[in-house]
Automatic annotation (TrEMBL):
Keyword Aminoacyl-tRNA synthetase listed: no
Residues passing through the membrane, by range: 50-66, 71-88, 108-128
Domain VanZ-like: 47-124
Domain of life: Bacteria
Source organism per UniProt: Cohnella endophytica
Pfam families in alphabetical order: VanZ (PF04892)
InterPro entries xrefs: VanZ-like
Coiled coil spans: none
Name recorded for this polypeptide: VanZ-like domain-containing protein
Amino acid sequence: MRLNSKWRYAPAVICMLTIFITSSRSGDQLDTVLPWLQKWLPALTDFNPMHYVAYFALGLSFALAMGKRAATWPGFLLNVVLCLLYGITDEWHQSFVPMRTPDPQDLLHDGIGAAVAGLLVLIVYYLIGRRSSRNYTVR
């Protein structure tokens, strides 16, 4: 199934909206969510791992929007840069939210999540390309 080019961006927009809405929550609101999450993930002590998850998803959704270009090193770099640029705007946005502050360390987590997503895309395309280039014979 091929997605129409304009619909390829829908997951990225949804991801960015989700990140925006989540980062719009005040510190008090987030403090009430953490104990609930800890019931499911007892090792979770703060929301830092969520940066990896959110920007991994954003990186995958940008890769979908970019198509085969995402499976190149320039596409990989573009993907990570776009995620980091969005991360910068998100940190700036948090500076206006009560009991929230921008944190450069969060950008590192965002970039790692995006880079892992981009590397996964590169690996999958590489493996698919290797597999399809083999000459299989049916006996």
